[in-house]
Amino acid sequence: MTGIRFEKDIDYHNEDDGELTAAEPSTPRSRRLQSFVDEYGTYRPHLSRIDHIKRYLKKQFATFTFLCCLNSVLDKIPLLRCLKEYNIRKNLFGDIIAGIIVAIMHIPQGMAYGVLTTLPPIYGLYVSFFPVIIYMIFGTCPHLSIGTFAVISLMIAQALESVIQPSMSIINNNQTSSTFSNDSDLFLINEKIGTATTLALLVGIVQLILSFLRLGFLAIYLTEPFISGFTTGAALHVFTSQIPLIFDIKAPRGINGAFKLPRFYIKLISLLIHNINLVSTAIGIISIIVLYVAKYLNERYKSKIRIVLPCELILVIIGTITSHFTKLHSKHRVSVVGEIKRGLPSLTVPPLNHWNQLIVPAITIAAVSLSISISMAKMFSRKHGYKVSSNQELLAYGISNVFSSFFQCYPSAGSLSRSVVQEGSGGKTLLIGGFSSIVLGTVIIALTHLFRSLPMTCLAAIIIVNLKGLLFQMKDFMFYFQISLLECILWTMTFVSVLLFDVDIGLYVGMCTSFVINTIRTQKPRFVVLGQVEETGLYKSIVYFPSGHQYSKIKILRFDESLYACNAPFFKRKFYELIDIHLSYSPLISWGEKTQKNHKNEPTYKYVILDCSPFNYIDTVGVKLLIQIFHDLKKRGITLYLSECRLEVRHTFDVMKFYEQTESDTVYVTTHSAVMAARNALNNESVNNDETNELVESQL
């Protein structure tokens, strides 16, 4: 870099200098900056807000034709473009295989997660069928598997329990059979189903509103550390809810509030001593071990066998056959799934009985599901090079939930485990969902009665093993601890609050913590001292470039954030600290040694240069602060220069009449030109002082 020199006052850092706006002739702007604008910039007349609105509407309506409107509507249905560009020879076989494999995963997971929501297993299969079809039509990520998901299922169960009295809930993890014997039982089940479908409708409406308002970008505020901490804590709740099913005992009731999980385990231990079912426990433990080993082998040798073995479906088939012929339910009192109704549900309007109590859970579930689903869709899009639109994804999720709510479905979401399998099975287009739905529809219509002898402990084993990826996220704590302390705090606060309190409370705590951390990052950014790298025009932080040269009487600073009201107090305090000016008051009462004066008679620096290249914008408070600092430094005999101001910043300066309240040569195009101006001014002062001294000596 020693041979690099910047002789011209050209801003190489700001890309918007091609759009520099020439100042009005009456504006007392910097002569150097004005000459640069006149030579290289273009004149763009200032437009009022009304003129901006008129220009925008004119631009929009200029292309407002029937064909444009039709294309805009058709773009909302990505399946049409997929069918138009579909390559049968290249994609059909892979899509069929991926659809079949994912459908095989849907069957046991749908039944298991259906039980997790405290609903009969068949409703988990409904959620694995209807939303998949709708997402295939409106979704943009071919590798995202929509349907049941453990964390969302747990949140749905908690929402249902909060609306329906716990004493009335009979379809839960504690029952010894899912066969219902009286009308009151059926009434309560219908009540829970109606509440779940109402919840799905509300979740879909929330997602559609976010899509129509184009608020898909809000998902980025639910950051990766937050999602990791939240899903890890929720996975422990899911794991805990399945332990009673493994041991085939009734789960402790009435445990709510703080330290829910510790109190749950204390009561669970006393129940295990008296009520444990050894046969069910043996089946559950063996199922967990076999399924874990099979999945491990699948993952290790998937590159060689190229086909993912349906371990969960094999476990369901073996468990059902064994239970049926050995009569585990009648002889050993092992809980089984029981009768499952066959056929697709009829069109039913959600009852909306408890809609006012479900609004908050609906917003919470919508936020969690969209953050998890969109983050997975973005991950696959980066890996495979296709485009995923957050607003279009919100539209797909919303329509899926609204449509499915009329067919007795609860809210759906993307599943990481199924999505990874769907990606690794060779599927490439949205038609994977169609082939998966064909298989699932066949099972729902004709084969569900075959699973009535399936032990509930097998479904619990499937859920527990599928939590492996979420539970292993606990190692993210050390990862974030090494990368960023603030991200580690966010992960820890979210995880601990979910673990010790509940899922919804943990969600709110995590979101508040994320907001506070983002605020801290903007309120107290880095404020660094710059030095010149050898003889180039580059100026870098002296912390990372200790060899950077600092000129005597000149201080070069850079504030690594936009300057606005929230960080203005920090900017002012840190600015004066870096130029060795202390603004603190002397103590009213002194003792011991005499206190040093805070204000030095002679300032350390004559020129202070502020590199404004990180300023994306500056508000009125920031401009007023710079004007105040300029005049305060001038009283102290210090000159303030600004450099590398972006177009938006300069526009705010013009509107706030910054140049009229400071001086005409305050703003420079580059930091190097500001440094050269300060050096020249110092040299001129030195020459003038020498001449004055010589004149005085000659007179003496």
TrEMBL record:
Keywords (A to Z) from UniProt: Membrane, Transmembrane, Transmembrane helix
InterPro entries listed in its UniProt record: SLC26A/SulP_dom, SLC26A/SulP_fam, STAS_dom, STAS_dom_sf
Domain STAS as annotated: residue spans: 544-678
Gene3D superfamilies reported in the protein's UniProt record: STAS domain
Membrane topology: Multi-pass membrane protein
CDD domains: STAS_SulP_like_sulfate_transporter
Gene Ontology terms: cellular component: membrane
Location in the cell: Membrane
Transmembrane regions: 92-112, 132-157, 199-222, 268-293, 305-325, 355-374, 425-447, 454-473, 479-501
Primary localization class, coarse: membrane
SUPFAM superfamilies for the chain: SpoIIaa-like (SSF52091)
Domain of life, source organism: Eukaryota
Gene Ontology terms describing biological process: transmembrane transport
Keyword Transcription: no
Protein name (Swiss-Prot/TrEMBL): STAS domain-containing protein
Organism: Rotaria sordida
